[in-house]
Amino acid sequence: MHVFFLSSHQKMAENLRSVLSKSNISVTHARSIDQARRLLRAAPDVFFVDYYVLSQSGIEITKTLKQEGLLEGSEVWLTGYGIANSKKELMKIAGNRYWPQPLNFFDIQDFLESRQDDQRKVISPTAARMIGQVWASKSTAILAAEGIRLIFANGALIREDPPNCFEEALEDGDFSYSVVQNLTGGDWNKTGKRLIKACSGGDISHWLEDHHRSAFGYVFSLDLNELELDKDMLSFVSSRTALRKVSLSTKAIGQLYVLWLLGLVRGETAVERQRQQQSVDLEARVRKNQNYSWILAEYARLKTAEPFVVLGIPAKADSKIIVESVARMRERYTAIQHADRVSDEIKTAAQNMLTLIDQAAKSVHADAIDENMAEEQKLLMYAKRMMAQSNWVQAKKALTKAHQIRIEDVDILANLGWVQYQTDSSQMDEAIENLHLALHLESSHLDSLVFLSRIYIEKEDYESAMPFLRKATTLTPDPEIQEMRKLAEAEIKILERNRNDN
Fold first, then answer.
1. Which pLDDT score, from 0 to 100, does residue 317 have?
2. Which of the residues in the chain have pLDDT under 50?
3. What domain range includes position 17?
């Protein structure tokens, strides 16, 4: 469920978002009608507007946005101080519900939760299966349906257009699939947990009758231990117990249905189970005499890959993760080098992999531009040099080209937003949008937080700057950023005092 809150009260919006997020209800906040137009990419479930928004009538704003087709199908709520007596008149003109101020955020939460409970989701098996396979196979791809676009990097969801459309896509998405390259970021486990949670509200009665009760057991296609599944479910997965010998909880059966819906498990007959048991000894013998031929293909795949791909870690991984990955990979290939009955060809491939790992480790720690660095990273480093010299035009050219190569790189996106702001006032909205997108991809990205803070402070919009400054000052002790926060807090106090005096 999506609530769009139009109000000049930043603190009220933060409190509303904080409370509703615990119920998986997203809140988008706008401070003016112009900002609302930019952010209303799809009609929200609830459009919640203050009676006065920066001296403009909330009712008139609502009428305007309705005429522009931005609130089609949205429920309209109004709020304000001391206008309860005219509530009926307000409802006739513009709204479906009135909430008096000060707002009781928990009453709103309870009301929306009850509404969510009343709506049974109907998950599209086609959409769920396609999304599930992209996630499980760790594909880098774009899934597009009418008015919806989902971007995945290595199976992790990194972008939703419009924002927060993932659950809606599962209900009625008829997707086209296209492969993309050079995208990084996102959390694979987090995406899996969200996917399983989103599909858990479906109706499983039909599946229970046609599939679950006729299956002897299930075959699972991936490791599920990190997805916070029910204990009964994990035990069932690991033991390969027949269904007739185990009593699964209601929650576990629901999770089993979701995994089946996503194509991650399939029903297994008693005959298949018997054949599987008969092949166990044969598989053990094959593993015992394994010749590690896969290393040859692995080296061929990775010898020209980027350093982070070689190490199997995100492009923005910190030093600790890099060190752990290098140590783990070195241990693996060193063990293969010294394994019994390994051919000279395999030992050579293992040594080549160790050399490749060492080169990748040096590259990700390198401060200088070298020939082994990816093209977009060379452009980013060059742009930063130009920015340090206040050569904004050259920096913008380099960052624009880098962004075309890797559109979801958070560092490139944030710095591009900053130079757009510095070079062309007509690109102000696009600059701010790029910085917000960078934060959408990485919520604690320090440069994005600082750049947005500086933009709003230069515009003397101190209230808008404060959320970013609060987060930035918790991430770094940088005295300049701490001073920016003190300045903004002082200016906000002056504004509040002036309001009270008036």
1. 64
2. 117-118, 281-289, 366-371
3. 2-118
Residues 6+ apart with CB under 8 A from 32: 8, 53, 54, 56
3-state SS record for 5-42: EECCCHHHHHHHHHHHHCCCCEEEEECCHHHHHHHCCC
CA 488 to the chain's CA centroid? 30
* Rounded Cα–Cα distance for residues 384 and 392 (Å): 10
pLDDT at 371: 46
Domain presence at residue 370: no
Q: Using CA atoms, how far apart are residues 226 and 379, in angstroms rounded to an integer?
A: 37
Neighbouring residues of 29: CB distance < 8 A, sequence distance ≥ 6: 5, 6, 7, 10, 13, 16, 17
Residues ≥6 apart with Cβ < 8 Å to 410 = 185, 316, 438, 441, 442, 445, 448
Domain-terminating residue out of 338, 365, 392: 365
Whether residues 384 and 494 share a domain: the answer is yes
Can you state the percent helix, strand and coil of the chain, rounding each to 5? 60, 10, 30
131 and 108 in a common domain: no
Q: How many CB atoms lie within 10 A of CB 483?
A: 10
Give the burial class of 58: count Cβ atoms within 10 A of its Cβ; 0-12 exposed, 13-18 middle, 19 or more buried: buried
Strands 156-161 and 148-153 come out as antiparallel
Q: Distance between CA atoms of 467 and 490, rounded to whole angstroms?
A: 15
